[in-house]
Task: inverse folding
């Protein structure tokens, strides 16, 4: 069992507690940390409250190996992160003349004199490394406190992101070692949360790694899988194995294999095509429910043409073509799935059955041999099914 480095993110600022504000920094940081093999165990939003923030930082340092704060590094009275972090750690807050000179120079480059209150931004926690901020006046800080890495980042994303990428990621990567955390999300339509769990619990409960979480999201069910491995490829292999077994149990109810959403997408110019593709996919699934396989195949083929890299569209098309007795077309669809997802065991399983349906036992056994190297348990099920 792999044990990843644990992290906490503390977002600071009373404005983040308003009902119309979202802490997008924490979402972005979580993604970056996962790529480094660091798992975020807790996220906290704290207003500009000295006592509550001090308590939060103390608790975070006690239980986590990485603590990242965002925001509260500005020049005003309510920017309390520097002061309170220093107090929580029992360290002094010292004026850094070099940082002060850099802030003055930045103001001078705009033709203005630095307001005196901005000198607060040159106060640095004792023994902290200053993280440069070419995009603003608030430098960040990095320090080690009793084995815990503590990172103070500015709140504006245009300052936070480059600071993390250029000055923090490499430091944390060294602490994380070679462990990697990879997440995948599958979306299910037409089933309730308890019905999904009843079908797949016998599968996912056998795994300590990956970890499975089932959530209801408006009109669909999300299955979240989190795997840890020595490499990203190893973690993905674990995800492929479990997701293949889940796909086998849920079949066409899965309309997304990698988290792509069927609701109003926000991916720039691709938005319209993705919505059209989803509409055709739903139409195909509806025809499948009526056992009108030719009509279903036509709709799903349209979906796969609109989004040629959508694995679920090709996979569902293969299932439908098989049910329609259009085996050669089904073979082409499964081959496309394998091209897009080479380690998806269910694709080899279905492709072997399709070859067997046209009495091409040589190709069926070739898929069996490949599947045996990816998922031996599923390969045994395939062999037993072909044998009988």
Result:
């Amino acid at each position: 069992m792999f044990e990843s480095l644990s992290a906490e993110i503390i977002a600071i600022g009373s404005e983040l507690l308003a009902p119309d504000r979202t802490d997008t920094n924490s979402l972005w940081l979580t993604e970056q940390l996962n790529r480094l093999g660091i798992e975020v165990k807790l996220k906290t939003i704290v207003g500009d409250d000295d006592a509550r923030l001090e308590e939060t930082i103390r608790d975070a340092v006690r239980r986590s190996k990485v603590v990242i704060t965002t925001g509260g590094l500005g020049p005003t009275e309510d920017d309390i992160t520097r002061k309170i972090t220093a107090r929580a750690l029992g360290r002094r807050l010292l004026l850094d003349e070099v940082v002060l000179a850099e802030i003055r120079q930045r103001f001078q480059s705009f033709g203005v004199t630095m307001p005196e209150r901005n000198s607060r931004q040159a106060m640095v926690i004792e023994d902290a490394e200053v993280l440069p901020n070419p995009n603003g006046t608030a430098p960040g800080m990095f320090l080690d406190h009793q084995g815990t890495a503590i990172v103070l980042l500015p709140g504006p994303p245009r300052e936070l992101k480059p600071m993390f990428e250029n000055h923090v990621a490499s430091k944390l990567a060294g602490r994380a070692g070679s462990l990697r955390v990879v997440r995948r999300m599958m979306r299910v339509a037409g089933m309730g949360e308890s019905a999904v769990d009843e079908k797949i619990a016998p599968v996912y409960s056998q795994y300590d790694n990956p970890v499975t979480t089932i959530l209801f999201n408006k009109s669909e069910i999300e299955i979240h899988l989190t795997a840890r491995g020595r490499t990203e490829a190893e973690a993905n292999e674990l995800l492929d194995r479990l997701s293949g077994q889940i796909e086998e149990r849920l079949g066409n109810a899965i309309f997304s294999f990698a988290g792509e959403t069927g609701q109003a997408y926000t991916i720039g110019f691709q938005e319209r095509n993705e919505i059209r593709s989803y509409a055709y996919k739903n139409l195909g699934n509806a025809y499948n429910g009526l056992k009108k396989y030719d009509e279903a195949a036509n709709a799903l083929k349209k979906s796969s043409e609109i989004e040629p890299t959508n694995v679920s569209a090709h996979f569902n098309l293969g299932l439908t073509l098989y049910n329609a007795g259009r085996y050669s077309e089904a073979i082409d669809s499964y081959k496309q799935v394998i091209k897009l997802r080479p380690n998806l065991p269910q694709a080899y399983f279905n492709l072997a059955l399709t070859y067997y349906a046209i009495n091409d036992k040589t190709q069926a056994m070739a898929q069996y041999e490949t599947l045996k190297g990816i998922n031996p348990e599923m390969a045994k099920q395939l062999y037993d099914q072909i044998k009988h």
